[in-house]
Amino acid sequence: MMLHELLQQPSCRKSSLLASVVAPSVFGALDTGDTKCLEVALKIICKISSDDDTKSYLVSSGIIAKLCPLLSEGRHTECCLNILRNLSDVKEAADFIIGSDNCLSSISDNLDTGSCREREHAVVILLAVCSHSTEDCSLVMKEGVIPALVELSVNGTNFAKDYSIKMLQLLRDYFSSSCSREVATNHAAENPSNGSICKQPISNSARYISRKLNIFSKPRSLTLA
Predict the structure, then answer these.
(1) Distance between CA 23 and CA 61 in Å, rounded?
(2) Which of 90, 110, 147, 187 is the most buried (most CB within 10 A)?
(3) pTM for the structure as a whole
């Protein structure tokens, strides 16, 4: 509790040295079965994770691996998502989110069913992950986030609307680029003997995604173009 009170002071909260001293003992509290200790530890980590000087340290210390089980179990969800949001602008954090068991799926679930704050955190995290590596867009799309993003872009808070639209733009661009690459690949596989092109059937899921993304190419109030 003393550490938590100490970190209320801006000068302490912004100290990377203090974070490096505090973090190991706080991490230990995450492994205890004490609910109160866990809650206080998460609040402390949430505060120090907002400081750019401490983000890389927290990521390299394995904080994301400790948060993922809590997210999967639905425990302290808002605080866990807030920490991931704070860290998500670090490339290594995005890599851990993608590579950790059930982390991406838990974030995607909260994008769909979470509270207003949880949904805001989730869309910021997903946008950061996809912005670091467009190849990760395919993994995010496989989580079925398109319907939730579309709904959030219409009915979410102003903040959530802005970020969900940015996310949909990014996914639309990725999907268009992927389709172009597929066409080029098929064209390269053309049979020179008869001039026919080896075409692959478009899957139902691809058609569904295309329809969802195409609504942002039409002249509507939510048009992204």
Answers:
(1) 9
(2) 110
(3) 0.76
